[in-house]
Write a structure and sequence with these properties.
Elements (H helix, E strand, L loop, with lengths): L10 H35 L5 H23 L7 H19 L6 H18 L3 H5 L2
Helix pairs in contact: 1-2, 2-3
Length: 133
C-alpha cells in the first residue's frame, strides 16, 4: 500500500514498505500499551454479566483506533490516483476481513455477524404485505 509503482515487489520495495509501515504500527502499539491496563481494569471491575460486553466494546474501540492509523497511513501511500485508490481499497478490504475473521477475533466476528443478520432481518420486505400493496 505504501509504495508507488508496480504491484510486483522486489526485495528493496518490501523493505521500504515494511519500514514505512513500522512507523505507523510502532506509534499505535506504544499508545495502546499505555492504555492497556486501564482498559483491562475496566473489564475486571465490570459486573460478571457485563464483562463480555466491556471486552467487546474494548475490541471495537481498538479496531476503530487501528482503522484511524490505517487511514492516516494512506497519506504516505502511492501518489498516483489509480494506485492510491487500489491500495486503499485493498488495505481496507484486508483490514475489514481480518476483523470479521473468526480465527483472528471470534468475538468481533460474532458481533458483526449478528449486526449483519439484524440489518438483513429489518431490510427484508413483509412478504404478505408486499403482494397486497
Amino acid at each position: 500500500m505504501l509504495i508507488n509503482g508496480d504491484q510486483k515487489k522486489d526485495g528493496n520495495k518490501n523493505k521500504k514498505e515494511k519500514k514505512l509501515a513500522e512507523r505507523f504500527t510502532h506509534d499505535f502499539e506504544k499508545k495502546e500499551d499505555s492504555r492497556f491496563f486501564a482498559d483491562l481494569q475496566q473489564e475486571i471491575d465490570a459486573e460478571e454479566t457485563q464483562r463480555e460486553e466491556v471486552y467487546l466494546q474494548w475490541l471495537l474501540a481498538l479496531a476503530a483506533r487501528a482503522e484511524q492509523v490505517l487511514r492516516h497511513a494512506f497519506i504516505a501511500g502511492p501518489r498516483s490516483n489509480m494506485q492510491r485508490y487500489k491500495a486503499q481499497s485493498a488495505a481496507l478490504s484486508r483490514f475489514d476481513a481480518g476483523l470479521r475473521s473468526s480465527k483472528s477475533f471470534p468475538e468481533l466476528a460474532n458481533h458483526f455477524a449478528r449486526q449483519r443478520a439484524s440489518r438483513t432481518a429489518h431490510a427484508a420486505p413483509d412478504s404478505e404485505g408486499a403482494h397486497h400493496a
